[in-house]
């Protein structure tokens, strides 16, 4: 199996780079279809979140030019992103996926959101037919590994989250959150989580604006809040002390002129913007206004780092689990690679056994059931003894570097290639040249 993965994340690229490669949820099906139509790619999955954009592919020869795919898809010169890109193959691609799904590569190690995001990416890839047997096997195992990490370590317990850090920053700005008003612009899961933290720390009313008004009403109901039409946000947001924005809009929806208008209406009372969107919803110029405080996803990351040192030991335990699981999965893949040869060998020898029994049956005359059973047992025993050594050798070699060589030798010794050619020709109605 040839796995390749390419991408950027919060560790390798600043938000201004990530936002140029981000793919909105509505455009994922189209991007997936382009990925699997790209030369050399058989299966694909795309993970696009505020902290990472990654392309995972099962390729025919392990050398699909995924950099060229990025350049073609985004119509960008990839050389400008080269310092930020990482690319993994085979075992390293498997390890990276396991770490991502287990939240060991997250901005907040142990946060649970990433597992849900990978599962959503998996569901989308399956829905558009971009994911089949091999990537399905890999993703299914990744989910099991994530569960094992969360069950066997405390890496996810008392996790510091982007939402909790946002609350901490808001408290520093306002002193107390009691009675403060919150506006959610966009109804994403992280916005909802941040709002819950703010409400738990004393925030008063919560307003929700979303492009789909029904979704805004549903989320507002969870907080006993009020839904507002998205078109009214510029007339309404000055009533909020804290604005959490995560819309997926391609350009900033809050600009400097909006901030100036808000401050004038608020008589210069401060406003706190938590921008967790990629691309960003809040123009960085807003941060230059006295009385407006803007924190984007990278700012929150820096605040998170100081909280995570005490979970290093649990993360090390989780890394050991990942290492074990990568080796186990690679072993399973190698074993799967020799299975077709083992099946072909078994079929080949069984065909010979049946043919030999049929050839001599006329000379044996009428046989009793006991005699039929004796012949069956005898011939099966002979075939099993013949198969034992090559099958054992194949299974052992599957875990070693010489697996391909051993498979080729066995197939040549038993002439399995020619047998398969004849079977294919027979099914297609063709003929094969007689072997001399």
Topology:
Blueprint: E1 3-9, H1 15-21, H2 28-37, E2 41-48, E3 52-59, H3 66-74, E4 86-89, H4 90-101, H5 113-127, H6 133-152, H7 162-174, E5 182-185, H8 189-200, E6 206-210, H9 213-222, E7 226-229, H10 233-236, E8 242-245, H11 256-265, E9 271-275, E10 292-296, H12 297-305, H13 312-364, H14 369-397, H15 403-413, H16 416-428
Parallel strand pairs: 5-6, 5-8, 6-7, 8-9, 9-10
Antiparallel strand pairs: 1-3, 1-4, 2-3
3D architecture notes:
The protein is of the alpha/beta class and 436 residues long. The protein has three domains: 3-158, 2-Layer Sandwich (Beta Polymerase, domain 2); 162-304, 3-Layer(aba) Sandwich (Rossmann fold); 338-428, no CATH class. It is 54% helix and 12% strand. It contains 16 helices and ten strands. The chain has helices at residues 15-21, 28-37, 66-74, 90-101, 113-127, 133-152, 162-174, 189-200, 213-222, 233-236, 256-265, 297-305, 312-364, 369-397, 403-413, 416-428; strands at residues 3-9, 41-48, 52-59, 86-89, 182-185, 206-210, 226-229, 242-245, 271-275, 292-296. The protein has a six-stranded parallel beta sheet with strand order 7-6-5-8-9-10. Strands 2-3-1-4 form a four-stranded antiparallel beta sheet, sandwiched between helices. Strand 8 (242-245), helix 11 and strand 9 (271-275) form a beta-alpha-beta unit. Helix 4 crosses helix 13 (312-364), helix 6 (133-152) crosses helix 13 (312-364) and helix 13 (312-364) runs antiparallel to helix 14 (369-397). The longest helix is centred in the C-terminal third of the chain and has 53 residues, at 312-364. The radius of gyration is 30 Å and the shape is elongated. 36% of the residues are buried.
